[in-house]
Amino acid sequence: FSNSSSNGSGGRCSLCPQSPEVSFCPLSPEVSPCSQSPEVPYIVSTTYRTAYHFQPPRNWINDISGLMYYKGIYHNFYQYNPHCALWCWGDIAWGHSVSTDLVNWIQLEPVIEPDNPSDIDGCWTGSATILSGGQPVILYTGVSRDNCQVQNLLFPKNPSDPYLREWTKAGNNPVIQPVVPGLNRSCFRDPTTGWIGPDGLWRIAVGAQLYSYNAALLYKSEDFLSWTRVDHPLYSHNLSNMWECPDFFAVLPGNNSGLDMSVSIPRGAKHALKMSVGYFDKYLIGVYDLKRDAFVPDTIVDDCRLWLRIDYGDFYASKSFFDSKKGRRIIWGWSQEADCRSDDVAKGWAGIHTIPRTIWLDSDGKQLLQWPVDEIESLRTNEINHQGLELNKGDMFEINGVDTFQADVEIYFELTSINAAEPFDPSWLLDPEKHCCEAGASVHGGIGPFGLVILASNNMDEHTVVHFRVYKSQQKYMILMCSDLRRSSIRPSPYTPAYGGFFELDLAKERKISLRTLIDRSAVESFGGGGRVCITSRVYPAVLADVGRAHMYAFNNGSATVRVPQLSAWTMRNAHVNVENG
Ligand code: DQQ
């Protein structure tokens, strides 16, 4: 491998400079309007479109805005621009798709569009809640004139329709206004799903900027119609950007069953507070102190760069829901395009949702684990297996027999010795992307780098690397996982950072590190260490457009030999995702 890139963007590791120009925090009316779509080149319109990730047939999507399982049907409501492939001020409506298996989706009509003084400049993110009698409701942020953000209520017109095709805006909208002293009324949005407190009242949290604090403001209601603000936030912090899309849910340590927030939560449960902040979805684990009606993190970490992330890559505005069909909690997020906006206009679409993931708390009670929902395995075909491989320093083992553009790959790496682990520097935790740039796949280490090279052209001009490195830190081992996109495309325009995250592993007990990578044309989702670190990446290799064939390898570039006791890979079939009729 080489870290230097022929496209002029290699070695560039800062996260933001080339990210798409639209800034989502805080959103401002200056975001440029839709431009006329140029002629759509064939290549751009089909090559990078995902085959089994969620996306509408055309146009722009962003946040997951409401999720629920209702009368046998999964519902995904999302931020959607019905008019074009860009996020445009004033256009954002709620798209709606339904599924019976979380894999195949049917797109229905948008459920709401901006047409009312309380949402005339946009129907922004919100959440669905199923009330005690089984009635679904939605609370969403409406943007009224002058970017004043309010919270509005929505009811299904016909609750006996399992598809919930039509919704009515409540007559008394907005039900919550930004009237709190010190509240920035343009930073007051994204209400959570409701939960029930010990007093039987409903609660929701809303992301907000209050004086110099960023907060999840807490509101209470008896009937979900009229809301009173609790005089303190659920939680707040003064050293971060605005918290968008907060999510609050209960989890049981070491138990992957989900908990329903609209019934009482069992003893021993912990709570997770997730917020979308800057470019990442971060979370804190703690307890919900019922007396104070507040979230109390287990550890106070002032520097929000050190907060754990749901995903360390291109993943934002995630939302979770309790799946009553299978008794699990599922989370998924939005992954935006990393090419330029003119390419999005040319493609006619922009944005995907990640594969839905089951989410639960590790048995140590410190970190969330995620794994793609089992249903996605129904798309697997052409299984190939290898056992007992040994990868010495410099080895690359080619994985043949599957479609390398649409694949699911699971590998276990077994460390033959842990003595060669290099020392860990805690300052790396502040900027794992920078460390992934410095310690790329071509930089030999003690244990690692080892991992997977995907979407590689014949001469390796283009390739994406997902890899691990093992470090020793006092009594424990820290594993670095990177998804390095710096050589992912010879095209100059895509944003190609090296994403990364760290996780702890007790290597004295367990010598195996697992990696699962789902490749879906322009989307790559990787799950390291059984879902301890997840990284979603968007890639636009020319090899995909020009040659239609790419290579995939398992590799090791560390001095210690790494065994591969099990490697399995499958081709992934296309799912029926919002296919247009006719
Ligand atoms: N996207 C929505 C907002 C939210 C932001 C607007 C996060 O409600 O804060 O489309 O991506």
TrEMBL record:
Signal sequence residues: none
Keyword Chaperone listed: no
User: By its UniProt entry, which Gene3D superfamilies does this protein fall under?
Assistant: Exo-inulinase, domain 1, Glycosyl hydrolase domain, family 43
Task: Give GO BP annotations, semicolon-separated.
Answer: carbohydrate metabolic process
For this protein, the record's CDD domains field holds: GH32_Fruct1-like (cd18624)
Q: What is its EC number?
A: 3.2.1.153
The record's annotation in Pfam families points to:
Glyco_hydro_32C, Glyco_hydro_32N
Residue ranges of the Glycosyl hydrolase family 32 N-terminal domain? 53-372
Listed InterPro entries: ConA-like_dom_sf (IPR013320), Fructan_Metab_Enzymes (IPR050551), Glyco_hydro_32 (IPR001362), Glyco_hydro_32_C (IPR013189), Glyco_hydro_32_N (IPR013148), Glyco_hydro_beta-prop_sf (IPR023296)
**Locate the Glycosyl hydrolase family 32 C-terminal domain: which residues?**
375-570
Q: Which reaction does it catalyse?
A: Hydrolysis of terminal, non-reducing (2->1)-linked beta-D-fructofuranose residues in fructans
Keywords from UniProt, A to Z, are: Disulfide bond, Glycoprotein, Glycosidase, Hydrolase, Signal
Is Hydrolase found in the keyword set?
yes
Q: In the record, what terms sit under GO molecular function?
A: fructan beta-(2,1)-fructosidase activity
Name the protein family: Belongs to the glycosyl hydrolase 32 family.
The name on file for this protein is fructan beta-(2,1)-fructosidase
Q: State the organism of origin.
A: Aegilops tauschii subsp. strangulata (Goatgrass)
